[in-house]
Amino acid sequence: QLQLQESGPGLVKPSETLSLTCSVSGVSISSHNYYWGWIRQAPGKGLEWIGTIYYNGDTYYNASLKSRLTISLDTSKNQFSLRLSSVTAADTAVYFCGGAATISGLDYGGQGTQVTVSS
Amino acid sequence: DIQMTQSPSTLSASVGDRVTFTCRASQGISSWLAWYQQRPGKAPKLLIYKASSLGSGVPSRFSGSGSGAEFTLTISSLQPDDFATYYCQQYNTYPWTFGQGTKVEIK
């Protein structure tokens, strides 16, 4: 059974880089026809798609974040990660990671991680 | 980008009620639609994928239907755990987009 867990710092200073990791168990992240991704939810708001990475490393990003965003796979650790540079208060949100077979929507099995951007 | 519009925004219902939500896409998305349930402070839970396929471990009182641009989620008999916010999301075309959500409140 697929299990995911986000980790990363809860507080990031403005203009710095946010780095989050999603640890995956139950499925190899390089399994064919699987994809992985991140969404976020700002306080009191709806869900925002951040980006998706396929088992072969292909990535798709939200255009509004693309210039600052990198999502990558670490097959040796069965993890994938998010890096968002030059953060501002607008990046304050709960971040969720998810994964699934490509026929399905992502399954966000983790708890989510609160990220606050503040000096 | 494909816009997803959910209706209603809020729904008041009682335990045992049959409830139906609607999600409309601004263009056709075939059946590449997922429904999520989110309780306060929790991660979204995948209920339905590919418009009508039940997610793993999801009770059979949840069902989804539709294709193209109009979709529905039905809860056949509302249970106390079902009071939450429901989101639709299209994954036919990048960027993936979510609806604004339907909140189910206790009547």
Total number of strands of chain B: 11
- Overall 3D geometry of chain B? globular
Largest sheet of chain B: 7 strands, mixed
- How far from one another are the termini of chain A? 40 Å
- How helical, in percent, are the residues of chain B? under 10%
Contiguous helical run count of chain A? 0
The coarse silhouette of chain A is globular
Q: Largest beta sheet of chain A, briefly? A: 6 strands, mixed
Which H/E pattern describes the elements of chain B?
A: EEEEEEEEEEE
Largest interface: A-B, 22 and 25 residues
Low-confidence stretches of chain A: none
SS summary, helix count of chain B: 0
Number of beta-strand segments of chain A: 10
Using only C-alpha atoms, the radius of gyration of chain A works out to: 13 Å
Q: Give the helix level of chain A as a range of percent.
A: under 10%
Can you walk through the features of this model?
The complex is a heterodimer of chains A (119) and B (107). With 119 residues, chain A is mostly beta strands. Helices cover 0% and strands 50% of the residues of chain A. Chain A has strands at residues 3-7, 11-12, 18-25, 34-41, 48-54, 59-61, 69-74, 79-84, 93-101, 113-117. Chain A has a 6-stranded mixed beta sheet, with no helix packed on it. Chain A has a 4-stranded antiparallel beta sheet with strand order 1-3-8-7, with no helix packed on it. In chain A, strand 5 (48-54) and strand 6 (59-61) form a beta hairpin. Chain B contains no helices and 11 strands. The termini of chain B are far apart. In chain B, a hairpin with a 3-residue loop joins strand 5 (45-49) and strand 6. Chain B is 0% helix and 50% strand. Chain B is an all-beta fold.
